[in-house]
Amino acid sequence: MALSFFTKNKKTLQARCRDDYATKMRLKYAPFYLAMDGQKGTTVKLNGREMIMLSSNDYLGLSFHPKAIEAGRAAMLKWGTSTTGARTSNGSRTFHLELEEKLAAFLGREACHISVAGYLACMSSVASFAQKGDVILADKNIHSCLWDGIRLSNATVERFSHNSPDDLRDVLAAVSPDSPKMMVVEGVYSMEGHIARLPELSEIAEEHGCFTVLDDAHGFGVLGRQGRGTVDHFGLNDKVDVICGSLSKSLASTGGFVAASTDVIEYLRSHSKQTIFSAAISPSQAACAQASLELMQTEPQHLEQLWANTHKYRAILKSLGLDTWESETPAVPIVLGSKERVYPFWKALLDKGVFTVMSIAPAVPAGKDLIRTAISAMHTDEQLEKIADAMAYAVKKM
Ligand SMILES: Cc1ncc(COP(=O)(O)O)c(C=O)c1O
Question: Which end of the chain has the smaller Cβ count within 10 Å, N or C?
């Protein structure tokens, strides 16, 4: 009997995988998981054809910087390919501590902890601190990793309208003043390109005693002095308890970080399952991130170029009458409103040699189906001209 029970369930799950509608559609239209067969900066090769990459998160364009590449190579020669273990047990190395100290100092924090993925770092920034009985106030548009952290924490969640201090205030009015509270926001929203209204949000959060977690995956490297991020951009370092983010965007590596006071970081190291039971970031990943962090402080031209390119690019989209959801940053969506409009637009750009990414509901709110694009400091004027031609072509094809 027991055997047939297991067999039946296995078959049900196999059928679920085989018959899944989303997977069938993805494989039919094949817009995702496209594997490039070459890359040099913002030029990639897809099936042997050169294309302009217009949707990476390499905002500062450091992923091909000779100093970052050399740092990764040297670290691998010195430390090997992997630490093959968790920080808690056999995987901790002095280069982890060095990068953490440098990140903490850059962000004006006492301490920092790094993980193998931004996803894990940001998830643990919520899950490690909130618990059953707490109330989490979450912006409706936060990233999936933060929602996962909220679910894992078992805290009660109250959503407030995207970037709306008024709604946050209304939602908080109905929450017991005695409940421990956490507010979770992003610094720069990755799909929308919006900057958090942090001065107003953090003031309300403070009035209500909220512990504030800010995911700055897309603000780090882009906003603030030398790219210190959204909190620095507003000069609100004392108002945010935890800044988490990714090493895989402006820092041109892979991994994530959590920066906070020493008490908070040591608590995370005791309670974050994502840290305790997961292998440490590899030598070359840490070294590339550290080299990029140094470049952010010694070569300001990358940040300047990023913003110059962003302004040029936004002007191109504006001249074509495209809806960019009032993006204020290098992450620029092109909102088209339905998947029927998004697909031909994306395909037209691809045909013209511009690589972008589609994002359709439920990944974005209904009616906001969009093409996600992001500008890099590495885009050249010539590439921006080609992008402008491709956009004009895609608009006509819609
Ligand atoms: C807001 C936000 N947080 C966290 C992450 C996860 O970072 P990573 O890709 O380094 O895992 C992302 C990645 O897209 C993101 O956009």
Answer: N
